[in-house]
Amino acid sequence: PLTLNMFMVIQDYFIEHPMNSLLQASIDLKIPKSTISRILRTKIKMKPYKLSLCQMLDEAQKAARLEFCTWLLQQPDEFIFDVIWDDEKWFHLNQHPNRQNTRYWGLTPPNLVLNLKNQNVKKIMAFVTIVQGKAYLFWHTDEDGKSVNVNTDQYIKSVEDVLKDISTEQLNVYWWQQDGATCHTSKKSMAYLQGIFGDRLISKQLKDFKIFGVPEWPAHSPDLNPLDFTFWGQAMKKVWDEKPSNLDELKATVQRFFDSLSPDFVKNCVANIRK
Length: 275
Known about the structure:
The chain is an alpha/beta fold. The chain has helices at 4-16, 22-29, 33-44, 59-74, 152-163, 168-171, 182-185, 187-197, 226-242, 247-259, 263-271; strands at 47-50, 83-92, 103-106, 123-131, 134-139, 175-177, 201-202. The protein has 11 helices and 7 strands.
């Protein structure tokens, strides 16, 4: 039977430890998990808020996003499928908390910042491109399989690797998208990309290379790149689920994930950009 004391104990516990799981609370308080859940939801009226990452935008960045999104929506519906969407991501043997499972119990949505550090953790950087339902994966490593810094030459090497499987006929139609990382927008990288795509570039620094008519890629816009808003999270979940013990196993896990993606699923995810 519920008692006022039990009610107060559970309420005080989650006020002090809002990110603890129901299981941990059950262990700490010696109260059944189902009872704790029922009291939180029906009596205390706390809700399990899902964590999300965000980046603060200034007014200029908001204006740049609006300009780019307006331009993108003016293109034909099929345009986004002719864009090669790309991004790079570190994969760690010790991943960040799984945001699919982590919850914050509270009476109101929390304004919470987590400082997550991954110093001295084994990691490796993936470079992935998505186009027309296909995913191309490249690892930023040296000949011995060790992670390397991504400078201009390494970036061009990765682009060459993923483009070698795409026909010249297709490359004459496709657009190339990239963010504003220095190695992406260096003179050497941009000259290389212009040699392949001409003015069909979605990037930063376009005006510096006399590319006009296309708004620059807006800063802090992971919600506009399907790798950021879909595929990276799913790939990380695979890593959490399989728990690889070394970098070779980590690479294999990520490779299997991208190999398993069906063309229809990839295109459906890319279509969400317009939403």
